[in-house]
Amino acid sequence: MANPDAPSPRRPFTEARATRRLPLHAPQRAWAMSEWALLPLRLFVGVTFVYAGLQKLANPAFTTAASSVSIQHQMAFAVTTSPIGGLLAHLVGEARIIGVVLASGELVVGLGTVLGLWTRVAAAGGLLISLSLFLTVSFHTTPYFTGSDIVFFFAWIPLLIAGGGSRLSVDAKLAQIAARQQGAPPPTLVPIAFASVQSICGHYDDGRCRALRAPCGPAHCPVLAGERPSLYDRRHLDAVDRRTLIAGTSAVVGGVAGAIAIGGITAEGGKILSSGSSGGGRTLSPTTATGTPPSTTSAPTASTGATGAPTTTAPPTTTAHPKGTLLGSASQVPTNQAASFTIPKSGDPGIVVHTKEGLFVAYDAVCPHLGCTVGYAPSVQLIVCPCHGSEFEVMTGDVIAGPAPHGLTKLDVVEEGNGNLYLQ
Question: Looking at the structure, do residues 167 and 65 belong to the same domain, yes or no?
Answer without folding.
Answer: yes
